Amino acid sequence: MLLFCVSVHAQNDSIIKPINESTKIKQKYGIRLGGDFSKIVRTLIDEDYKGFEIQGDFRLTNKWYLAGEIGAEEKTGSNDFLNATAKGTYFKVGSDYNFYKNWFGMENMIYGGLRIGFSTFSQTLNSFGIYSQNQYWAPQFTSDIAQEFSGLTALWSEIIIGLKAELLNNLYIGVNIQFKGMINQDQPENFENLYVPGFNRTHDSGRFGFGYSYNISYLIPLYKKEK
Amino acid sequence: MKYFKYIKLLITILFIVTTSCEKDDICSEETLTTPRLFIEFYDISNHESLKNIFNFRAQGVGNEDVLTGYNLVTSSQVLLPLKTTEGVTQYMLHNDYGIDDNGTPNDTTDDIITGNEDIITIAYNTEEVYVSRACGFKTVFTNITVTVEDDGDKWILIILPTNDNQSVIDETAIHFKIFH
Questions:
Q1: Which has the least CB within 10 A, A93, A123, B61, B173?
Q2: Is A13 exposed, middle or buried (0-12, 13-18, 19+ CB in 10 A)?
Q3: β-strands A195-196, A82-98: how paired?
Q4: CB contact under 8 A, B7 and A8
């Protein structure tokens, strides 16, 4: 993260301000494909997590991009009383809007995005224990018989804030954060979704969720166009 | 420099989001979890009126400890925790508990416990119900019956459920009445 900041910062300083504002600027249009490397890193270091995400966008106009992600995740969560695994795939589609006014020749983005996300997944209750405020008869009942609830779906919306910087020619590195709002989800009988692939952790206090992405992507240029 | 400012803002938001305290993970004391069996003691000669038991003492059969809060108290009610691991829980309910030390306060071997002890047997089915991610599951009890062993000198005369097919879902209303 720090490296990333420094490199972007350095880029700014090394660029000379446009000499003539009226210079015709040709910008690259194309399909940009990439992935979330934070999910790969997490898969390697966190034994309770497996996941990946492929990201893509297509530039429609100077400011607007058609964007989407597909991914798969498996996440096990546990505390003193519960151990459950969520497993499934998801996709998100929407658009990004670039707020950033680039200097001459640069094609970086500070953007806001909107998405609709959809996931199909299963929720497995691996084990649970009974909670009792009164511990006169301890220990309480526990169960290690796994119960799987499959064929669940969830639909949510997202607002994304992020940035992408062109590190090398056509190679971009980026970071974003996602604020999610659950629209609809299937809940398992006598249990609940603690984690939804693509949506991440659910919260007791509401329908909201959070996510982040550190990504690397490559632009396949198709044509050039003045703004 | 404008760019750099945006990045700092983004990092700050990211930091707050990922480290924010997750209160969902703590099971609050106010959450209704596994309920206890709620019994009230009524007067056998006047079924409408509560009747206190003096020097009341409650202890589970097979448990070394006296039930907390019910060691020599004056009470017209008792809340009994039930075992979540099996379908039967037994309690010794002692009316007017006392110890007669036989005139030898330093020698406990010849002490006689006075008062009247009855053993009740509570039989039930258990059902595990999801509460929340922090509290996990609670047990609720269905098809409860409460019976008293006839030791020839019962102080418990009648036991009546407040509903047919009595269940214990929460502790807000009484589940059984004991007449004495």
A1: B173
A2: exposed
A3: unpaired
A4: yes
CB-count burial class (<10 Å; 0-12, 13-18, 19+) for B169:
middle
Which residues in chain B have their CB less than 8 angstroms from residue A82's CB?
Answer: 133, 136
In a domain? residue A183: yes
A17 located within any domain: no
The closest alpha carbon to B92, from B102, B109, B108, B78, belongs to B78
Distance from CA of B160 to the nearest CA of A (A): 25
The Cα–Cα gap between A174 and A35 comes to 10
Helix axes of B2-19 and A2-14: crossing angle, nearest 10 degrees: 170
Q: What is the ipTM of this complex?
A: 0.80
Q: Is residue A39 part of a domain?
A: yes
Give the nearest chain B residue to A81 (CA atoms). B136
Contact residues for B135 (Cβ-Cβ < 8 A; gap 6+): A81, A131, B27, B31, B33
Q: Note the pLDDT of residue A166.
A: 93
- pLDDT of A112: 96
The answer to whether A40 touches A52, Cβ cutoff 8 Å, is yes
Q: Which domain holds residue A153?
A: 31-226
Query: Tens of pLDDT along A152-197?
Result: 999 999 999 999 999 999 999 999 999 999 999 999 999 999 999 9
- Give the Cα separation of A169 and A218 in Å (integer): 9
Number of domains chain A is built from: 1
B22 Rama sector, left if φ>0, alpha if ψ -120 to 50, beta otherwise: beta
Q: Where are the domains of chain B?
A: 37-179
Alpha-carbon span B159 to B37, nearest angstrom: 13
Domain presence at residue A214: yes
pTM to 2 decimals?
0.81
- Taking 70 as the pLDDT cut, the residues of chain B under it are 1-7, 9-11, 13-24
Helix ranges, chain B (H)? 2-19
Nearest CA in chain A to B129: A190
Residues in A closer than 8 angstroms to B23, CB to CB, are 205
Find, among A96, A104, A78, the residue nearest to A163 by Cα. Answer: A96
A131 close to A140: Cβ distance less than 8 angstroms: yes
